[in-house]
Amino acid sequence: MNLTRLAHSVPPGAGSFLLFGIAVACAGTVVAAEQPLYTVLNPTGNPPPIQRRAMAPRPASLSGKTVYLVDETFDGGDKFLEQMKAWMAVHMPDVKTEFREKKGSYAADDPDLWKEIKSVNGLMIMAIGH
Amino acid sequence: MIIDALVDLVHDKAYEEGMPALRLAFTHTPVGGKTRKELDEYIAGDDPVTKRPFMAEIAGYLTQPLNDEEKKTGVVQREKKRLIGPDTADNLQKYFDDRFWTDQLPIIMPTEERVAAMLKATHHKPDEIVGKMRVTGEREAWQYTVGTVAINAVMAGAKPEMFPAILALAASQTDAHSSSTSSMAAMAVVSGKIVKELDLNSSTGALGLYNNAGALIGRAWSLLSMNATGGSVPGHTYEGVQGNPMADVPAVFAENIAGLPAGWKPLSVQKGFQMDDNVVSTFSGCQSQNTMMVLQDEDWQYTLERFIGGLGSPQRGGKLLLIDPSVTPPLLRFGFDTKEKLIKWVKENVTIPKNHYWLDQEVINYKLGPARAGIEPYATWLKLPGDAPIPYLNNVEVVVVGGSGNIRWSVNECTYTKSVKVDDWK
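Structure tokens for the assembled complex are given below, as produced in the milestone run.
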């Protein structure tokens, strides 16, 4: 089975917001004349509005910056970030790195950590293990 | 950074969170279980999605100035078209299948006339909000109305007299198609006079195959669970690694009230309703069912602990014991003259040694973070000595069901979720 088909009503990562209605604008076009025609109701629920958020401004260079490597505790994310930290120590020696495990469950907010990162004007790479 | 198996899901999530152009880097699937040397190769290699050098890509993501798209703010409303067609039933079936608005089986076309007939079975207005569902706890919640529930009930082939029970299931806001990679399913137990009125089965084949009313109500709940969140789309809003045969049509069955021993209350009464109230009680996170025969006087404690404890990760605190009336006499002999005593015994005696508990990958994923954050009981369990028993079950229920064709019963990896009065939705 082709799982992609027409399933996804909003192309991910396209950078533009298409109306959901576009996906349901027109049903199939091959109409056998002898078959009865139906007009049917859309069975889907109502999605919430989306609040667009601007991304954080970027520095021109990582030189002298502190990059936080943040693990959210899923499978192997911690080990991956530890290896990344080691790689950066060799290949990006002018970048300081800090490894952190996010507090609480994997999806929980961690305002103390965000505050710490902002206090040093740091950057963050988060790893979602699996 | 995330694994490439979740590329669609993570783009969806970024979109929902208002940052559709979020800078995402991908590594190979899986990360868990890999050696450090293998991870080093991932890090030194290319992003498997973009084919660019992984670390150079990340450095670029952290330093490249934002483009106009990445700076956008404001609110975006998403609209949907109310009507689809006109077209033939074959074309519309394909149209629905292609969008994963069906269970890939033939549906009844939800015409305005059929939906209007379904809506006559409730006094609630079509545009009344029934509830919200989300495919996992972290995804956005979509809202659905009485009308939306009616459309899905028609598609399932349900009859109008079943509609109040379907609305009650909808009002429970229990998603029968969670997107968990662990491939969850759902079940519901129906109690009250409605069991006889709808001819719901509580005997042989109650959980399937032979429960017409249960199958139609369950299919309506299933389709609603898919469509309330815009369709159950593999890779996007459904991530079950292997899928689950229990998920096709959620089991909706009645408790065998006649088979309850003296002192054992129906589930609905345990949940605070009156004996005659019409109630649906939902169970979610169902992942497996295992059956065995009657317990023996000589070693029932050992067998009960092994049988229940042997099923599923200790991260999951839920178990549903489905007891056939034929196996209740020995349970009474063992002292379980109420369901509550049996539930208490299971919660206290089904345990796992501390060391093994904290080595379970699901426990690591879901409970280690809370333990480190001081959340109980996990914080205390983390400090226990190595072989200390951890009584990890916190959601155990007992329901009597079955036709007594043999001395069999089952333990189900299922978590009680919510009970809703059907009469409120007539």
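The mean pLDDT of chain B is 95. The longest helix of chain B spans residues 212-227. Further analysis is deferred to the final report.
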